[in-house]
Each structure stands twice: as C-alpha cells, then as structure tokens.
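Fill in residues.
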C-alpha cells in the first residue's frame, strides 16, 4: 500500500493520521502533554515527537491536538476517542488499538481506557501523570509552591489569599524565583531534594506549577486544590524543611470539577505499562508510577507493569524507549 498522511479538524481539534506503507494493521493513538493556554499551534498538525520509531515499525499513528489548551483532560479524552472513531470509519478497524500518552497525556490515556474500556487494547504512559488531577495538583504543584512561598516569602505574586487569591496574575516571575533560590542555596537544595526536583530545574518547575495551578483555577472557577496534611503532606514538608507552610482549602465546586474531569480509579480495564524517567523535574516518580498503587487498591494490580526508569529530564528518553515500552505491553 501507499503511505497515507491525513490532516484535518474534528469538533475544533486538529488531528493528524500517519499510515505507513508497511502498516502492520495496528493503531497507536498519541496523547500529548500540557500545552499552556495561548501557545502557538501548528496548522496542519505536525507529526508527534517521540513516535517516529513506531511509525518506522509499521504502526499507524493518530494524534489529536485537542480542542482546548491547558489542563484540558475532558476535552483531550473526548477528542482522542472521536479521532479513534474517525480512523475506524475512514480506514477500517485496526487489529489492535493502543494508547501512548506523554506527561499530562499519560493521564489522558489512562482516563480514556477507564472511560472507554472496549475501545483500546492497552496503555503506555511515558513520563506520564499516572495519578488523578486532584493528587497531581495537591502534592505535585501546590505542595512545592506553598513550601517555596514559606521558605522564600514575597517572591511569588502576593495577595491576601496567597496562592488561592483570584487576583493573582497568570504567571510568576521566573527570574525572581531563580534569584531568590541562588541567594540561599542551602534552602534551595533542601526544597529541591524534598520534592525530588533537581536544583538546576527547580526554577522552571516552580514556574510551570504556578502557571498550571492558575490556569486550572480559571478553568474550574475557583481554587482547585487542598493542602495535603499528615506525614506525607504539609506536616511532613514542614518537618523536612523547618518552616511553617500555609494551608489551603479548595473551593468545593472547583474541587468537584477536578475530581469529575480528572479522576482515575485504578480499574485498569486493559493492560498498562508505565515508563518513568530516571530523573524527572516535572512529574517525579511518585506520580509517574502512581497508577500501579491505584490499580493494586482496586484489586487490579496484575494489570500494571512499571518499567525501569530511563533517561534524565522530563520526557527525555533514548529513541528506542517508546518501542520497548509498547513491545512490553504487547507481550502481556
């Protein structure tokens, strides 16, 4: 057959389909990661980075650009499923259909499998958010931001309600964050070590967490995260860092939105492979491996395999890693 490249738009989401001349009859749906609101978009959509090895092996690749930017989990899940349905209508039913999600796309892929269990044969989460939105924003974004604000007061944008104040600007000053960290490297190292973020990446991670937290607050219509207390939450952070950390209470309606749109149950209706990075400043291991614990709690732990960590830097893998992860999934 002749290779096919198809681009277009479905319900506001740009998409791209690549079918190689040596198509093996299997389809991989690609779920991309977080895209800040207002980021420039390609039209037509380009080929998804990191997926080249799978195309070379004969897999068809379908990728949605999503109809919304930001922490757009509900849109991304719906857009990915619409693209799958479109592929079947246009090119026939594949022998098997897989999901590969990157970063935020890991949550998109896992949520897609839970909500459309008959549509997919398995999930690979690459450097993925493999926990619910609620957990990722409470422990992965709010916790390090609140700890930084306590250790380096006055550096993040200030308002009476702290990080929960609706009047805050959408982005923090990255230069100010780095200047504060550089002025007290001992505190900076303690913060980085406690949250498993390399010191060299700490400024960028905090800047991104602030941006995503403000964006989700706008999307949810209120502050979307509770401070997580207890030994694994604020009290543990305080004990490790030696500073009093401000507590936050989520707006009930906003938290309900986050739980409704970004939940994971651990149901694992299909086989799942989790591929974490060795060092990841954005999605540390406790989040990229989190679905294994969720599945175990749900009595489905045998459905999930965690591969050895590979590569340093968020979603920075040797090129063969995605092939190895998908083959590990196909062998299960």
């Amino acid at each position: 057959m002749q290779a096919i490249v198809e681009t277009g738009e479905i319900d506001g989401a740009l998409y791209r389909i690549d079918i190689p001349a040596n198509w093996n009859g299997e389809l991989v749906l690609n779920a991309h990661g977080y895209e800040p609101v207002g980021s420039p978009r390609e039209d037509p959509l380009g080929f998804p980075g990191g997926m080249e090895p799978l195309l070379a092996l004969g897999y068809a690749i379908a990728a949605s650009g999503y109809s919304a930017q930001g922490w757009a989990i509900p849109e991304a899940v719906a857009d990915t499923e619409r693209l799958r349905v479109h592929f079947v209508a246009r090119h026939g039913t594949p022998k098997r259909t897989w999901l590969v999600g990157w970063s935020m796309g890991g949550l998109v892929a896992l949520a897609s499998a839970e909500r459309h269990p008959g549509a997919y044969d398995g999930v690979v989460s690459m450097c993925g958010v493999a926990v619910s939105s609620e957990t990722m924003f409470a422990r992965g974004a709010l916790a390090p931001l609140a700890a930084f604000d306590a250790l380096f007061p006055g550096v993040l944008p200030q308002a009476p309600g702290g990080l929960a104040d609706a009047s805050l600007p959408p982005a923090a000053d990255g230069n100010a964050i780095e200047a504060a960290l550089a002025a007290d490297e001992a505190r900076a190292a303690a913060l980085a070590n406690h949250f498993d973020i390399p010191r060299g990446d700490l400024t960028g991670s905090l800047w991104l967490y602030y941006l995503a937290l403000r964006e989700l607050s706008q999307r949810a219509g209120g502050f979307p995260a509770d401070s997580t207390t207890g030994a694994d939450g604020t009290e543990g952070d305080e004990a490790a860092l030696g500073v009093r950390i401000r507590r936050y209470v989520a707006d009930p309606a906003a938290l309900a939105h986050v739980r409704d749109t970004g939940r994971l149950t651990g149901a694992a209706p299909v086989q799942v492979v989790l591929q974490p990075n060795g060092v990841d400043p954005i999605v540390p291991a406790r989040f990229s491996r989190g679905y294994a614990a969720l599945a175990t709690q749900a009595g489905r732990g045998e459905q999930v395999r965690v591969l050895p960590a590979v590569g340093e830097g968020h979603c920075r893998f040797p090129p063969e890693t995605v092939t190895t992860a998908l083959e590990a999934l196909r062998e299960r």
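The longest helix spans residues 73-91.
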